[in-house]
Amino acid sequence: MPRMNNEKWNEFLKRIGGGRSARDVCGNDKDMPSWRIVSNKLNEDTAFASKYSLAMENRGQVYADKISEIVDKVVDGLIDPNAGRVAIDGLKWMSMKLAPKKYGDVHKMEVKHETSYVDALKEISGIVDSTTSNALRTHEETEKNKTIQ
């Protein structure tokens, strides 16, 4: 195997992002490193690990795209519906595992609180109190005017 430089590592990531597994790329492509070398790189280089993670998400997108291709083939009668269902289920599972943010069952929402709940409730209470007191004042004045006449 030739020495790995940034260009070769980028090519490795491109193959992963194109839908191939790291095992396939490492085992079958003579110009690519062994899985042991890739594993060491992932453990030692956080920037590469981040790029690898992105490539894996892209791989999940490729699998999701394959689902629509299989659906078209089933509709056209080129693939048995049961075989298509099995393939689609497998691709959905892989997409969920590779790109959980996009295709996963659990969606997390992060909310940043700039004030405390207590402060927000006090503010709302103040608004409600002022609205209520204005309404009472108006009602009292209306009643007062009725009794004067």
Describe what is shown at a glance.
This protein is mainly alpha-helical. It has helices at residues 6-17, 22-28, 35-44, 46-75, 81-98, 100-103, 117-148.
> What structural category characterises the helix and strand content?
mainly alpha
Helical coverage, percent range: over 70%
Largest sheet: none
DSSP summary, beta strand count: 0
Uncertain segments are: none
Distance between the termini: 104 Å
What does this structure look like?
The chain is mainly α and 149 residues long. It folds into two domains: 98 residues, Homeodomain-like (Arc Repressor Mutant, subunit A, Orthogonal Bundle), CATH 1.10.10; 39 residues. It has seven helices and no strands. Helix 3 packs across helix 4. The longest helix has 32 residues. The mean pLDDT is 84.
What attributes characterize this protein structure?
single chain; 149 residues; mainly alpha; Arc Repressor Mutant, subunit A; 2 domains; elongated
Summarize the topology.
Elements: H1 6-17, H2 22-28, H3 35-44, H4 46-75, H5 81-98, H6 100-103, H7 117-148
Helix pairs in contact: 1-4, 3-4, 4-5
